[in-house]
Amino acid sequence: MKTVLIAYSSKTGTAEACVHLLEAELKGLRVTLADLDRETPDVSAFDAVVFGSSVRFAKLRPSAARFLNAHAAELAERPHGLFLCCGFGHEFEEYSSRLFPQLLRDSAFAVLNFGGKLKLERASWPERLLLHHVRSSIRESEIEDGEFTPTLPGILPENISMMASALRRAL
Fold this sequence. Notes:
- It contains six helices and eight strands; from the N terminus they run E-H-E-E-E-H-E-H-H-E-H-E-E-H.
- The chain is an alpha/beta fold.
């Protein structure tokens, strides 16, 4: 049976929720979840790896950045997928090209945005002020012809399914 490592870091729980959705789509594979804020898994023990992190202020979580820097060469040697939890999809291309080394992007079976959520209740006070401002800006930009149709960030289950399909093809 093929073994898959899903290594992730999550500040407010969105990346963790996405990882559990991905795990549910990988029935028939032996999947190990590794929260990089709590552990550092041995990449060489797995047939494939999915790596991802939430993005805060245009940066990977510190534990994710450390893991990626330490294990980029090992990741490049096996099938791997990359994801970000990035609530603002229009920033995903910039973030992924800046946060993931080109070698890993070019050799990945998938590089995807799993979406994101604005969770004010789990943010620090400075983050709450910024997120409140961002949320207000989104709502104002969604007013067209006097109609209010807010579109706030959310998880993208279709991209999680795409990652699962790409992983299965890579194995």
